[in-house]
Structures are given as structure tokens and as C-alpha cells.
Amino acid sequence: MHNYVIRSATQDDSQELARLFTELGHPTTSTQILTHWPAWSQYGSQALVAAQDDGELLGVLALHSMIVLHRPKPIGRVSALVVDARLRGSGIGRALMAAAETILKEAGCGLIEITSHNRLVDAHAFYEHLAYDRTSIRLVKNLD
């Protein structure tokens, strides 16, 4: 069993964050993370990490909250969750989700939504095990 703490990510984690996001299927570099960090964090987005003492990250969860006109309370969103492939099933994802739920509830969110790619069938089962319901679909259009 790995010893780790759940904490907020910092820019110093950029190399490890890039490794984990790339593993999730979102090829990312440390430079890209550092370039986006100021604007990303300015709007209340944050990332939680499961970190070992040596700086290795075992998992990361990105979250934010948003106010929408059609809901009485803000909506919390988990936009990414990845646990190092070697450690899936060890409880790290559950620990990250529990921490995110606490933060979003304390921020006044009335619900949490999660985005997860169609190909991540195991992730969908994980979220459903944590009592998340499938309620909608997400449609995207690439503008590049």
C-alpha cells in the first residue's frame, strides 16, 4: 500500500500532472500546464492530487464550480480524474472524489456533474458505484 496525502495541486506538480493527464488520454506537457495555470486558477478551478512524500503523484482530480442561470445553486464539475494505472482499485480515486465532494459542498454547490469519455467504461462503473447517475449526454464540437 502506498502512503499519500490528498492536497491541492501546485504549479510545481506540472510534470507529474502532465504524465497523469497524458495517461488519461489527454496528451499534455508541463509547459502547457504552466501556461494555462494562471487563467485556469483565476476562475476558481483547482486540482487535487494524491501525492507521495517524494513528489510522485498517484492520482489527480480537476474540479471547478460554476453558476448557471437555470439552477438555484452552483454546479460542481469534476472535469478529469485519473489514478496511475498501476494503482487503480486501491482507493485513491475514492479518496480524491470524497475530497472533491467536500470542497464542492462547502462551496455551496447543489449537485456535482462528471464528464467522462465514452471509451472509459470502467470509470463509468466507478462513478455509478459512488452513487452518480447517468442523466444526460455530452455533445462536443471541435473548433480547431
Automatic annotation (TrEMBL):
Highest taxon, organism lineage: Bacteria
EC number(s) per entry: 2.3.-.-
Keyword Repeat found: no
Presence of keyword Acyltransferase: yes
InterPro entries named among the record's database cross-references: Acyl_CoA_acyltransferase (IPR016181), Bact_Acetyltransf (IPR050832), GNAT_dom (IPR000182)
Gene3D superfamilies on file: 3.40.630.30
Pfam families: Acetyltransf_1
Domain N-acetyltransferase: 4-144
Recorded GO MF terms: acyltransferase activity
Database matches in CDD domains: NAT_SF
Enzyme class: transferase
Residue spans crossing the bilayer: none
UniProt KW keywords: Acyltransferase, Transferase
Name this protein carries in UniProt: GNAT family N-acetyltransferase
Lineage of producing organism: Bacteria, Pseudomonadati, Pseudomonadota, Betaproteobacteria, Burkholderiales
